[in-house]
Amino acid sequence: MVQANGQNPRPLTTIASHLEVSHLAFVASVTWFIWDWVLTLSCEIDVMWRRRVTLGSFLYLINTLACVASITIRLPLHFGVDVSTSLCPVIFQTVTILQSIQIAVLQCVLALRTYAVYNCSRLVLVPLLVLNAAGFALNMGENVDPLIRIVYRSNPLPIPYNGCILPAYTRAWPPCMLLLGFELAVGILMMAKLGQIMKNGCSLAQVEYIVFRDGLIESFVMSLGTMVLLVNDLIFPTGDSAAFRPMRSFIPLVGTIACKRLLLNLRHITQSELGSMTKRRDDIDHASSAPSQHELRDLADEPVDDLFFSLLDEEARNTPQVKPKTQLGDAVDEHHATQTPYTYSPSYASADLASDSSHPSHTQSLHGLRSKDIISPTISSRAISPAISSEDHERLYSSLLHPPRPFSFQGALRQAHGSRPRISPNAQG
User: Fold this and answer.
1) What is the pLDDT of residue 182?
2) CA distance to 48, 161, 290, 341, per residue, from 346 (Å)
3) Domain that holds residue 79
4) Which residues of 117-142 are buried (b: 16+ CB within 10 A; e: fewer)?
5) What is the largest CA-CA distance in the chain?
6) Domain for residue 424, yes or no?
7) 225, 244, 277: which is the final residue of a domain?
8) Mind listing the pLDDT tens digit for each residue in 312-343?
9) For the chain, what is the total number of helices (H) and then of strands (E)?
10) CA atoms of 326 and 332, how far apart (whole Å)
């Protein structure tokens, strides 16, 4: 019999059944984490560690190291390694710190994604960071909470588990409430922005699609896990049912995997688009002040912080809005041309450059045209603003050689080509 927090003692067999489920959940989650890491290792080396460290790769590194360290500490306890009584508090405090860091990094990534989607609005970023910091502080507070009591178990149980048992923690719901509030806020903001895009009839570029898809998946996984833990704490506030929660072993690793996938996908897309534009650099009509091929290659190899790719370019928000019309009628969706909240993305740039690689004057953006207008034979190429002036070329190469901070190769390219299609008001069919 084992007594926890002065409550009624629990049979050893009940504790054993709870520990067995927790053990299986931990082994399953670790197996999934290792398998996913093996699948993504080559991509991780290419897009993360072969380039200069940025904020995105730094968060990726912290997320991975905290997860691996937590697994390394807990894994021996699940496979027969016994520990002394004095080590139990140290193990508990270390694992709590590592898991708190994991959660803080996951929420930081979600906050920055939401910040990017809302065009770098501090009104969105600051409240999310405040919730993140408050939740992190409460999670770290578990280490000094006087109600926490570590119990050492030396009696053998019918599973390969030796070590420390954490009694019921009756005050786990405050950090869970903050975590859940953060995750629900991120989910609502992302869904609201996605609904606005769909309402405006806009199509998502590849980068925006990854941000919404993987961001919502990560937010959903974390919210589900937090709700499960919160319900468990409220329904079973005392006793061993609350002490051995299988979801506590499973949820942190699942959230870590979702965060790794999100960061890898964004970095991979960004670097792929840079490589595509580098291969098509010969399509640009080089002026006398143009950089050499070697300089262009060096610029394309510059790391792009996936938190601030062209989705966050300042100049896109300062682009004047135009309401183009032709004598043929509504050739361009005015509402789309003026209300689209997104900036020019790398996939749009690559599509523009590939539209007519044999004629540089036709490498313009078709973003904003409706599908029926794109295939309509009545719209001639004269309706599109044709050539790029020498001044635009000089501005492009000046931006490449002396990039602003943060550097955006796509933003400089868009500045030369224009982020909106410009239709001549006197165009004929």
Assistant:
1) 86
2) 19, 51, 22, 16
3) 12-277
4) bbbbeeebbeebbebbebbbebbbeb
5) 89
6) no
7) 277
8) 333 333 333 334 343 333 333 444 334 434 33
9) 15, 2
10) 9
